[in-house]
Structure formats: C-alpha cells, structure tokens
Amino acid sequence: MRQAWRVARQHNQFGCGGHAGGLVSRRQEGTPQGGPLSPLLSNILLNELDRELERRGHRFVRYADDANIYVRSCRAGERVMASVERFLKQRLKLTLNGEKSRVARPWACDYLGYGMSWHQQPRLRVATMSLRRLRDRLRDLLRRVRRRSVSYIIEQITPVLCGWAGYFKLSQSKRPLEELEGWVRHKLLCVMWRQWKRPSTRARNLIRLGLGEVRAWKSAVNGRGPWWKSGASHMNQALPKKLWDRLGLVSILDTINRLSRVT
Questions:
Q1: 72-117 tens-digit pLDDT
Q2: How would you class 164 by CB atoms within 10 Å of its CB: exposed for 0-12, middle for 13-18, buried for 19 or more?
Q3: N or C: which terminus of the chain carries fewer CB neighbours within 10 A?
Q4: In sequence order, what E strands does 108-164 have?
Q5: 91: exposed, middle or buried (C-beta count within 10 Å: 0-12, 13-18, 19+)?
Q6: At what angle do helices 128-145 and 150-167 cross, to 10 degrees?
Q7: Which has more pLDDT, 63 or 29?
Q8: Which of 245, 254, 130, 249 is nearest to 262 (CA)?
Q9: Secondary-structure breakdown of the chain: helix, strand, coil percentages, each rounded to the nearest 5
C-alpha cells in the first residue's frame, strides 16, 4: 500500500507586491510562488522529517513538499499517516493537506506527473493528468498560430514537445505516447484542412501530395466536418508520419527512446 501525503504550502508571499484596493503592499509571510527560495526552505525544514522516517525504517520518496511513504498494508498506511501528521504538527508546526493526502495503492496515485502500472513488475507511465495538460497546452498554442504556415506552427510547438519528452523520458508505457503522437498529427492536419478552405484547393493539394484525382475530389467535397476529414484515411495517406518527420515535427516516442538509450 502507498501513503501519499503532501505538506500544505504557505499561501502568502514575502518580498512580492500584493494588491489591496489597487495599491501594491509588502507581504509579511511566505515566499514567492515558483521562486527558488521556496523549495530550498522546504528541503531545509523537511530534512528533519526525512531523518525521522529513516529512523522509523520507512521507504519513502520526497520532492520539496510532495512525498510518498510506502508500507505493506492499508492499516499500516492509516497508522503511519496519523503519526506523520502528528509529527508535522507538533515538531515542525506544519499542517498536513487533508484534501491531497490519502492511503492508496501505488498505481492509484500519480507523483510528479508520473504514474505506475499495476503489474507484478511495475512500470512507470505518464500520468493521465499530464497527458491532458499537454493536450490543453497544445490546443491553446495551435489556436493562436493556426493561420500561420505549417513550418512556423511546427517551429512553435517543437520546444513544448522536446521539453515534455525530456521530462517523461523515464516512461516505460508506449501506447499512450503513440496515441498522443497521433493526436498531435491529427490537430495539425485539421489546421491544414481549415487553411485550404475551398474544395478546389483541398482537392488540388491532396493530388499534389499523391492522392488519386477521383479520391481527392471525393474527399474534398464530402459533407463531413474538419476534425473528421483531417483524421480520415485520405489525409493520413497523403501526409504519413515520414512526411511529418521531414517537415521537422518532433516525435515524442522517438525522442523518449533516444533519451532512454543515452541514460
């Protein structure tokens, strides 16, 4: 069983401008959110918790104020969670975030963007929430650049895809990554289809990309919407993965495989 707990963060900011009635005021508590001081102070303070867990013989992992403690049973998890909460409150004067703390199986909780499979030999996977956040980010980015050229769009999303693949290079589950890659190409195809606008332009471009004339015109004039059309077989045939590779589109799966070999 896994006990997943999280120490509540200080919500005020020190040294940063707060706003009250439109005026900037100086904060008296806390640290700036996202700054380097907050994780440094949390490590200094929670080092005492690390030593206490080591003294008790627990297996655990902690990153800043986010930590997991691994025990053998649900009963042990409940007991350890209660004792750790008492330690944090009495010794470190910290309050456990009850909404984000629970006792659960390892594969039922995500940690730092990763999840774990339920197999006897567990495998790391990208958490569902992490996949959803990347899709939301790409949707927003594509919405802002959808009128630009395909090369420009690929240039804009490349840093996002490279950074994301670099962070999740430890993932051992490939199917979600394959589905994500397919979704990215689908979104780009949808942008292209919308840019072509007229049926004659669509048919001409499909023919230029190697599709037969009859099929190109049939695809260009059918009554389906852009999302359906961009995911249909005629678009995938005209613009296969190898063509996207030549256009410079980053393959998340290939990047993760390459980084895994390096490490």
A1: 899 999 999 999 999 999 999 988 888 888 898 888 888 899 998 8
A2: buried
A3: C
A4: 114-116, 124-126
A5: exposed
A6: 160
A7: 63
A8: 254
A9: 55, 15, 30
Residue that has been written with the tokens 């992992």 in this structure: 61
List the Cα angle 193/195/199 in 5-degree steps.
Answer: 60
Type of residue found at 154:
I
**pLDDT mean over 61-66:** 88
Mean pLDDT, the chain, as a whole number? Answer: 85
Q: In angstroms, rounded to a whole number, what is the distance separating the alpha carbons of residues 115 and 130?
A: 10
Q: Which of 5, 10, 12 is nearest to 49 (CA)?
A: 5
Two tokens at 193? 């289809």
Other beta carbons less than 10 A from residue 56's beta carbon? 13
Residue matched to tokens 């049926």: 199
- Residue 9 DSSP one-character state: P
The two tokens of residue 199 are 């049926």
Number of H helices, E strands in the chain: 11, 8
Instruction: Report CA torsion sign: 107, 112, 39, 256.
Output: positive
d(CA 56, CA 254): 43
Residue 259: what residue type? L
pLDDT for the residue numbered 122:
82
